[in-house]
Amino acid sequence: MNWGYFASPATFYRLAGWMAPWWFVIAVVLGIAGLYVGFVVAPTDAQQGEVYRVIFIHVPAAWMSMFIYFVMACYGGVSLTFNTRMAAMMARALAPTGAMFTFVALWTGSFWGRPTWGTYWVWDARITSELVLLFLYIGFIALANAFEDPRRGDRASALLALIGLVNLPIIYFSVHWWNTLHQGSTVKLTGTSMHVAMLWGMLLMAFSFWAYAIGAALVRARAIILERERRTQWVRELAAT
Amino acid sequence: MDHTFYLAMSYAATAIAMAAEIIALRLRRARALAAVEEERDLETQD
Predict the structure, then answer these.
(1) Is residue A156 situated within a structural domain?
(2) Which residue of A43, A61, A230, B8 is most buried, as measured by CB atoms within 10 A?
(3) Which of B2-35 are b and which e, b meaning 16 or more Cβ less than 10 Å from the residue's Cβ?
């Protein structure tokens, strides 16, 4: 397969325009299914009562915050190594969605923490490293837009994204490395102690957020392509139609 | 114990954050298209 074909902004623009609505449809369908399982099928938690249902957005949002950062850094690495425009644009397109999910993870964690821990915030290793992730996203966005020449912004922000990768294992293993108020991982590759309906509700919501993130990144990438390629012939022809 | 407030604040904030992002995406696309139009008009004038 000729991957260079998809790296062309003109090809990517058309392909993303066709795919983005489908990703949003998948996100809505999975979101409705996830909320149904989470609120109707999943039983009430024996210890926490109904408030545990925050898990159906908190955990998927936290997963997405880390996963999007990883993908964004990979795009940054590809853009630095091969000097590909589309990879840099995709890294930029992912950052605001990643920041949004990081904010959602922190916010929902805070509103889950108040009734269960007795506080909205604690400088716990897991929560603090997740806050650092939010600052990394904000730093990436600010740095990418700080230069007159967007290619310089691409290189600087890609470097920051790669350096920031070190924070991901810190977030993930923080609950093992330090004595934290935040609980350890409930879902592991080796299995889970959760009720099966709770697990399915969480997984459905995670896939819904994943589909939403792809749809949003594709739409944003199209806008970035228009901004950057507005002087090219194909974009002018596109605007004329 | 009633935890409706905490659940509502969590789900409402998530919905608002996603809705705000979608509105921001639409605005950005509209601005980008307007910039392309502007560029094209300037070239036509030249």
Answers:
(1) yes
(2) A61
(3) ebeebbebbbebbeebbeebeeebeebbeebbee
- Window 1-46 of B, Cβ < 8 Å to A: 1, 3-4, 6-7, 9-11, 13-14, 17-18, 21-22, 24-25, 28-29, 31-33, 35-37, 39-40, 43
Q: Domain range for residue A198?
A: 19-41+48-180+190-240
ipTM score: 0.91
Q: Along the 241 residues of chain A, how does pLDDT read in single tens digits?
A: 666 677 788 999 999 999 999 999 999 999 999 999 999 999 988 888 889 999 999 999 999 999 999 999 999 999 999 988 999 999 999 999 999 999 999 999 999 999 999 999 999 999 999 999 999 999 999 999 999 999 999 999 999 999 999 999 999 999 888 888 887 777 776 777 788 999 999 999 999 999 999 999 999 999 999 999 888 888 887 766 6
For residue B25, give how far its alpha carbon lies from the nearest alpha carbon of chain A (Å): 6
Domains of chain A: total:
1
Cβ contact (<8 Å) for A97 and B21?
yes
Rounded CA gap, A69 and A92, in Å?
11
